[in-house]
Amino acid sequence: MKTYSLLPFIFILLFVHNIFGQEVEQVSDTATTNFPDSAYVMSKLYAFSADSMQGRSTKQKAISKSRKFLIDELVDIGVAAYVPDYLQAFEIPQKKGDTLTGKNILAYVEGFSSEQIIVISAHYDHVGMKDSLNIFNGADDNASGTIALLEMVKYFTANQPEHSMIFAFFDAEEMGLLGAKYFVNSSVVDSSLLKLNVNMDMVARGDKNELYAVGTYFYPQIKTYIEQAAKDKSIKMIYGADKPTDKPNWTYASDHGAFHKQSVPFVYFGVDDHKDYHKITDTAEKVNPDFYLEAIELIRDAVLIFDANLDVITANSRKK
Ligand SMILES: [Zn+2]
User: Fold this and answer.
1) C-beta separation of 197 from 172 below 8 A
2) How many helices, marked H, and strands, marked E, lie in the chain?
3) pLDDT digits (tens, 9 = 90+) for 177-205
4) Locate the Peptidase M28 domain: which residues (predicted)?
């Protein structure tokens, strides 16, 4: 049983002017929270990318273990389910008329002043196993984003945000963003309330101490907020991989692409591809804990600033 500080959380709002001449609400917290909880994060990262999880393929039965793991954590945290039992099932047609069932896992924290929704997401599926010697553990891709998302759930359950938040653990990303596409087109959420997607996919490998933020080409105001969140961090932020001429271009590389297709503002956080990407060597031992923990803190800090400035993010039209 985990316990959390229930001390009242005090927001101090400062108004400064950013480069667009707009008022920017900056947020600083005075709560004495242990964030991120390094022991929790690292133990869960190892557990979620262990051989026993068998690589978390949507096509293989063992993925049920990953789903149980996540739901047990959410129940333990005490966060509300956005759909019954946290599960949003969807059918994936297969050859020969067979169907496969994908399952998104959706938790919810109501905002204290708005029912507009920020979706914070990470895909929990990966590419499975060939045999007992060839298990694709997917520690970086994407146990890292999944466990970071659990840590965000813990934080925002204890510290209520201004806007409502859905914490989406998406399935079948590796099959073509299928879980995220199903979610954004489903009737479980009023699409007019979807105001921002913050997606995490591969956030633990600190090989270069660099983290990409993708999407600021379309929503430049978001860049200012990320710069604020990153200014007291050692991680070097890289903005890009989203212009039509960029190579690589990651605009549709992970679940945020499904939101972008629906014109929902997004930002995607992830590291560059590395030599263990989609290989059996993407294991937890390769993760740099200092980088991973700082990345989680940076993204949480960015989300706090997005939450305080959501009206500015949604007021500006996107580039094509
Ligand atoms: Zn991924």
Assistant:
1) no
2) 8, 13
3) 999 999 999 999 999 999 999 999 999 99
4) 104-301
